[in-house]
Amino acid sequence: MAATLQAPPAAVERHQLYEDALAMLMGTLFIALGMLIYSKTMLLTGSTAGLALLLSYVTKLQFGLIFFTINLPFYWLAWKRLGWKFTARTFIAVALVTLFSRLTDQWVGFTHLDPVYATVVGSGLCGTGLLMLFRHRTGLGGVNILAIYLQERHGIRAGYFQLGVDLAILAGAFFVLAPDRLLLSVLGAGIVNLTLAINHKPGRYLGIS
Fold first, then answer.
1. Is the dihedral of CA 104, 181, 193, 51 positive or negative?
2. Long-range CB contacts for residues 15-22, cutoff 8 Å, separation at least 24
3. Which residues contact 76 (CB under 8 A, 6 or more apart)?
4. Transmembrane region positions (predicted)?
5. pLDDT value, residue 6
6. Residues contacting 158, CB < 8 A, separation 6+
């Protein structure tokens, strides 16, 4: 019987510092813009950002401040389970989204924003931004930390785990959002998490930070 030829495993390439920095900058800018688009149309995303958006709708407090505050308890898990480097990068990413979410509202203005378009583009921006961060071992706090931990330690797809959590958050928004906005938010959550599930499979991307 002829021997089966197997391709040698691909070498793991370590990211350079400037590559991590650029991914963090662009990823957080994308997410901040996506959050602005969502907030202007009263949509809701999932994860910690979705919870912060929901609380901002209810309390009228600024999204960035709420987002930064509710992420604080999750840094302990990141430090203990994923290392101080991941924790530091995640803290910086959360701080950047907090800052950019405030500045983007001054940089960008909308005279008309169709809700369906906002759903697709906003969720696409957030999903792509999260993908950039995940591939450079950076989370966005909260559920992202749990998702990355579960994928790396137990093989549970980050996108599928987040989808379940996101649907739970969206269920809590039933009495806050209009029915059409709630349905569009569910669609948006699916786009974000399918983007991650399809493009962030274990072993597919071998670069490390």
1. positive
2. 15/136, 15/207, 15/208, 15/209, 19/136, 20/89, 20/136, 20/138, 20/209
3. none
4. 21-39, 51-74, 86-104, 116-134, 155-176, 182-199
5. 42
6. 134, 144, 147, 148, 150, 151, 196, 197, 200
Record the pTM. 0.80
CB 43 within 8 A of CB 118: yes
Burial of 150 (0-12, 13-18, 19+ CB in 10 A): middle
CA triple 154-79-190, angle to 5 deg:
50
Helix (H) or strand (E) run with residue 198 in it: helix 179-199
Extract long-range pairs of 75-78: CB within 8 Å, 24+ residues apart.
Answer: 75/141, 77/145, 77/146, 77/149, 78/139, 78/145, 78/149
| Closest to 170 (Cα-Cα) out of 196, 143, 145, 150 | 143
Calculate the average pLDDT of the chain: 83
Tokens of 36: 């602005």
User: Nearest to residue 162, comparing CAs of 182, 145, 174?
Assistant: 145
Q: Give the number of other Cβ atoms within 10 Å of residue 204's Cβ.
A: 9
What distance in Å separates the CA atoms of residue 64 and residue 62, rounded to the nearest whole number?
6
Q: Any residues with CB less than 8 A from the CB of 106 and at least 6 apart, and which? A: none
* Contact criterion met (CB below 8 Å) for 205 and 19: no
